[in-house]
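Reposting from the mailing list since nobody answered there.

I have sequence plus structure tokens for a pair of proteins and want to know whether others read the tokens the same way I do. The first protein:
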Amino acid sequence: MKTTEAFNQVCCGMDLHSSNVYICVMEKDGTISYSKRLKNDLPSILDALKTCEGLKHIAVESTFNWYWLVDGLMEHDYKVHLANPAQLTDCAAPKVTGDRHDAARLAYLLQRGELPEGYIYPKEVRPVRDVLRRRLMLVRQRTQTILSLQGMYARTTGKQISGSKLKKWTLLDVEKTFEQDADQFCAAELLATIQGLEKRVKKMDDYVRKFLKSYPDYQRILGVPGIGLALSLTILLETGPIERFACPGQYASYCRAVPSKRISNGKSKGQNNRKNGNKFLGWAYVEAAQFAQQHHPRIHSWFQKKQRRTCRNVALKSLAAKLSKATYIMLRDQSDFNEQLLFG
């Protein structure tokens, strides 16, 4: 998304780092009136900006730590534009780069209406969304630990065991399965880790339930095959206002559910930016596709045909794209799920 709101206005670019920020203010005629590095201290930054007459528009690159700076500037009536680093073009990049050049480039692109902007989620929504992101981290750790214990079981017994059975194990099961003392010790530690993570994930789920009334659309998304409570809230909070996206295909692209091909003269020249989009939405729809093809008969039939023609990963991505487009239409039209959204 690009905006011309700051066209030919006094603009500021901020190159934010972990401990400091480089500030560059560009006047209407393109000259630099202020250029300095400051510590990450909001009062000092605001004092410096007060000396710049006519400044209202500020471009901040979307880094891992932008919350405090963007919120603080917006609370003081500055119009903040969050620059999307994945879409920044090289048309205005100087031959020599550095923090000063990067900040000036942000101001230059903003002033000319060419700055690709990201969406600034409301301050009250971000903490709940981040709880679900931390939940995903714990779920991944739990899965890795289960796979490790399954590997130990397979090496020792030559058999396989499901993750659901492992979660129900006790120390007595560990002693019965493994003969060596070291194996018993390692398996017991892995089992304790799995059970501990299981409790943490459940506690996070219980905490998030308190916010369900604030997001009534979650019930609508629950009707999509493969989507449960955690995935429903994750999709809602990561998506934001559905009006941000012009069509289902654009939303599917944001969910990383479409290929990033680079083709020239009919030949593949590699891939474009696969990281462009939201990785949490990408994970959510792939998870939904996994569950949907297991428990929904018609989806399972479609998935098997697709898998025979291509491979499992491509089939999952294709199903994730269909689910994301169906969800987009449901949120846009405020309608319930029906199979025609997937199969026409």
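The second protein, same order (residues first, tokens after):
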Amino acid sequence: MKDLVWYASYGSNMLKNRFLCYIRGGTPESADKNYLGCSDKTEPIEDKPIILPYSIYFSKQSYIWENKGVAFIKPLRDENLRTLGRMYLISKDQFIELVHQENALDPRNTFIDIDFAYLILNGETKIPANWYSRIIYIGDKKGHPIFTFTSTWDDSEIILLPPGEKYLRTIIKGIKETYNMANEEIIQYLIALPGIKGLIGKQDIDTIVKSA
């Protein structure tokens, strides 16, 4: 069997059809980009919810998502924190190609080397890439390591920017697929997140959640 890893998502990839565009290739609903997909287009063996002990926030301006903010996590682990996530069991090679695509790099002509042994030993590693250039080791599940990725910038460099409606709707659909949560629970979760809190009104969140 191929070496398997869990990829833990916390943003738009919580919606399975969106994530599968990184595996199979194609254009996700509501996004303005066609993805190459992985060399190995085998779909995830399984997926599961995961609560991430990291702080999520929204920042940057993504041309794919209406030039609005997208999700990142701060790298400091805190067991009191609760970020909703969804993890997928895929091969190491697929994970490497996923990292390429999330950083707008073509794996056919760009090489990113991830030393997984070093990553597990040290808890994280940094790669020469774009926004998602810090890879974090979270733990293990069923004998396979769990990884996610985020930015390498310092907290002092973060400028919070709210996500657009399309991006937020995609996250909400992913939460609804993954968790048995009432709309009001989802609303309360979202309105407290940095990048949303004080920047998007509760009524707007309410409308998007109930229509997603």
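Reply #1 (J.P.):
I read it the same way you do. The chain has one domain: 4-157.
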